[in-house]
Amino acid sequence: MSPAMLAQLSGDGRINTDPNASSATPSPSFTDDDKSLTQLLLDREERAVAALLTRFKNLVTLAATPAGDGATKEVAASQSFQMEVETNALIGAAEDLLKLTRELKEMWLFGPLRDIGEGESEGTIDEDAKKVGEIVEKLLEKSAQAPAT
């Protein structure tokens, strides 16, 4: 996913697909691969949120269910086990959502991997790195030469 695509993600994690909606960034032309990746990521997000909400609802329902006066140890143990299972599933759903956000951040920061030979004509990364290194060295020299106050 390109940074331009991620810039169109709204606060709720959905891509703004309304052509009449105003946005600060121009809408890029998406390829079929970008559209399918976007849809895949949105589906993952929706499934993770749905699982999170379902597990939380189940957990609250179990906690609010009265045990009853004549409840046996087996009933109490069963409810306790159900709550433990739902808690573990809730944690798993939260971890899935965190994993998705980490993957989105990685795609935003590093971008998609390039194919062999793709982007080699740019060749400015090494030059830019050398320029940044020279600037940092000059700043360090200036700070070393400046009198200490």
Automatic annotation (TrEMBL):
Residues 17-30 have a biased composition (Polar residues). Residues 1-33 are annotated as: Disordered. It comes from the Eukaryota. One of its GO terms (biological process) is regulation of transcription by RNA polymerase II. It is found in: Nucleus. One of its GO terms (molecular function) is transcription coregulator activity. Gene3D superfamilies: Mediator of RNA polymerase II transcription subunit 22. Keywords: Nucleus, Transcription, Transcription regulation. GO terms for cellular component: mediator complex. Pfam families: Med22 (PF06179). InterPro entries: Med22. Belongs to the Mediator complex subunit 22 family. This is Mediator of RNA polymerase II transcription subunit 22. It comes from Coleophoma cylindrospora.
